[in-house]
What does this fold into?
Amino acid sequence: MEDILRKNNAQKSDYIGNIMYSYNNIKNRTFPKSDFEQTIWVPFEDFEVPIQNGYDNMLRKMYGDDYMIPQLEPSYHGDGILFDTTKPYTEYA
It folds into this structure.
């Protein structure tokens, strides 16, 4: 990984990328440096969080133009995950 990263000079490049061990779609993992020039604060639940100014560009490249629409996707936990705050998990055996 270090050899790959040393091949490029970050100071001279107009792009930056996500460091990941999966390079299945590298063009969705590189972004203009200008997307990270400023930090903005956005509301999230009961507080504000700092994010980069180009967050929309990054999310669209990584997840598609409809990233704000909830999707039904498979879970790492399998199909049988259940959350019930009124009943102990032992009652679902």
